[in-house]
Amino acid sequence: MDTMLIQLTNQKAAGLLHELEELNLIKVLKENIGPEKPKLSDKYRGILSKEEGKKLNEHIKQMRSEWNSI
Prior knowledge:
By secondary structure, this protein is mostly helical. The chain has a domain at 38-70. Helix content is 50%, strand content 0%. It contains three helices and no strands. The longest helix is centred in the C-terminal third of the chain and has 19 residues, at 50-68. It is elongated and about 70 Å long.
C-alpha cells in the first residue's frame, strides 16, 4: 500500500475522495490538516543576545515596580 499527501485545490475534490472511500478504493486517514506552527520559543530563539535579554528583563522589572507604585 502507498500513502500520499494530497492538497485539494477545489472543494469538489473532497467529495470525489469520499466517494472513492465509500467504494473501498481509498481510505482517508486525516482531514483538514495544515502546516504545523512552530513553537514560539523555537521561532524567536536567538533573536536577542543574552546581554539584550538581561537588559530587557531588568527593564520589565523596573516598569512593573513603577506600575505597582502608582
